[in-house]
Amino acid sequence: MEYDTNHTDERYYIMVDKDNWSDIRGELVEMKEEKKDWTISSPHVIRKGDYYVLSVSEQATRNRKFLAILNKYNTEVKRFVWCNICFLYSDGPLTYWIPREDAIRIKNELEQK
Fold first, then answer.
1. Which phi and psi angles does 110 have, rounded to 5°?
2. 55 in Cβ contact with 39 (< 8 Å)
3. Does the predicted TM-score (pTM) go above 0.70?
4. Sequence-ordered list of residues with C-beta below 8 angstroms from that of 83, at least 6 positions apart, any chain
5. Taking the C-alpha atoms of 30, 45, 70 and 15 in order, what is their torsion angle to the nearest 10 degrees?
């Protein structure tokens, strides 16, 4: 397995609980109408348990008005790095499956590091 950390994109996201989701989304949509597009359309909003995860632009992480909205809902910006993993074999990069146990182990190691 090979990896390259020099070509990963740093991204930012917010996690909003389901009780505040419609309110904070409304305020962000309002900002979009003011030509301040702080959200990233791809990937789409992801629901994880009782939370919604939304990618935001780096520009948003430095904008006082955006940060004030997050503060109002007790939400903070967090950073993540996309990690693409390729399994290489002598015949070139191909898609191969790996055992579930190995996938879980790799996932856990990546999350810890």
1. -65, -40
2. yes
3. no
4. 3, 8, 110
5. 170
